[in-house]
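Morning run. Coffee first, then this:
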Amino acid sequence: MPELPEVENARQVVEKALGRVIVDIDDTDTFECRPHMPGDIARALTGGKLTEARRRGKAMWCETVTADGSSGPTLGIHLGMGGRVIVTAPDGERTSQYGGGDPHVGERPTDKPEWTRFSMTFDDGGQLRLFDKRRLGRVRLEPDIDALGPDAAEITRDDFRHRIGSSGAPLKARLLDQAAIAGVGNLLADEVLWQSEQSPSRRAKTLTTDELDELRVVLRRAVRSAIKKGGVHTGEIIPFRKTDAACPRCGAPMTRGTVGGRTTWWCSREQS
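And here it is:
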């Protein structure tokens, strides 16, 4: 699934749709819009507006108002493994697109119409669309985000020390626990642990206060870099997560294993 940087990029795209009057919604894909029935989301939002695009970790949602200006239901948008949010301008030209890449995604001859799983049309003729070839995304009203921990890009020093440093779990597994800290996925975890020269299997509670503080600094820096560059795939260590690769920093062989149930790569010398 997408990690915090990808979802933040998508959130910034959704901001292009704020304040525009919704005149039509296609919510007929019952899998993507589960548990709602066709028409449920349309009836709740048509005539209203999206007023704010928000995110915590990998979760993204929009605040809304109804046609009479009163507070409306929140709208959750989950990208799945490869979903793309597309927002078009009033004249039909694209204003922005999640994640960069092909500017014609969703419009290429090979793109099937049914791969647009959800669409919202505005009174100016523009649209917000969720293009999801693999059909692993989700759009729903009133998404539950209460179980998520603090956002990885915003967590305070003291909160990070407590939530990460109090656990007996392997460090990588703790970073991946969305209830502890929200937004870190498999690639971002490997990037951050490589940058900080920490073993992914080290017990989190054995880190010193200074090591926890440094890990938080590295995490926030890696998140900012990935957002700026377009995603976690732009990390320094990501191209070297493969067989026969060497650590780009010291030249030692990269090692592959499983930590926290996830495939993990680390430097055999610096992260031992």
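Residues 209-229 form the longest helix (21 residues). Good start to the day.
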